[in-house]
Amino acid sequence: MKITTIGIDLAKSVFQIHGVDSHGKAVLRKKLSRAKMLEFFIKLPPCLIGMEACGSAHYWARKLVEMGHTVKLMAPQFVKPYVKANKNDAADAEAICEAVSRPNMRFVAIKTEEQQAILSLHRVRQSFVKARTAQSNQIRGLLSEFGVILPRGMADIARRLPELLEKTNLPDSFRELLQRLYQHFKELDKQVEELDQKIQLWHRNSAISRQLAEIPGIGPITASALVASIGDASSFANGRQLAAWLGLVPKQHSSGGKALLLGISKRGDCYLRTLLIHGARAVIRRAEDKPGGTWLSKLLARRHKNVAAVALANKNARIVWALLTHNDRRFRADYVPAVADA
């Protein structure tokens, strides 16, 4: 009995594994506690191991790769069609074992500890930004109940609220509440600024991140997030696959030989897609003040700004793939493709 492929259904404490031999016959069905996971696999001959790309998957993948196993991660939505019966841990492990052996399966690149560390900074920063926005909206909404209207924007909260607390005739209890909310707002703003500095420091120490930041519409935040999330760009066959992974290509609903393209699919990482589109909007705002003739100005002349922003984000994603897969290349704003030149 030689196990060639194993599927692992990950959990916090109890893990279900399913193993098959070279003929696809099930030869192993077992539950393992977290403490015995490494002990079991270190005694096992090297084999192919499949897991869903979920919480702790990258950690276990790194550990198993160190033992000599070949580990492949898959998106959960690609594994679900292989579940044959009712959902349970054993059925999930069997489905993972079958899915990982499919020749056309799409896999997720295993992230390094450094990649996960910088991504953790981005995730925490994103949560602080959301909390700061929610806090400013709450302050603005509470003041409106007393007839005080503040314009939209973080700057007006920080600039006008201290003055309102001193001069406006507000009840003392409400004034104390506003002071408490304002202190919370300032603390959130401080946390965001400190995390920005940490990300900037990592960006300055990363050559490839600095290289991506040369692309118009991509700054240190976007560049560092792209480098940490994508990792090995060679796992994508071309730039369009990377753009599709980010959800920047049209959703297709075709049948009977008739092609129907809808809006963008919005699949993949929403955070990266948002950063790329917001960066594209900044480029578009500056492009409106420049003379025409460029690809972007021609696009803006015939399509809506939102469409142009997504198109530019898609283009930047493809440029990112080209730079990540060819380390000897650098971004050139005056570059003209050979086909267009001919």
Automatic annotation (TrEMBL):
Origin superkingdom: Bacteria
Name recorded for this polypeptide: IS110 family transposase
Stretches of the chain forming a coiled coil according to its record: 178-205
Annotated ranges, domain Transposase IS110-like N-terminal: 6-146
UniProt keyword annotation of Repeat present: no
One Pfam family hit: Transposase_20
Entry-linked NCBIfam families: transpos_IS110
Keywords for this protein: Coiled coil
Residue ranges annotated for the Transposase IS116/IS110/IS902 C-terminal domain, each copy included: 210-286
Keyword Coiled coil: yes
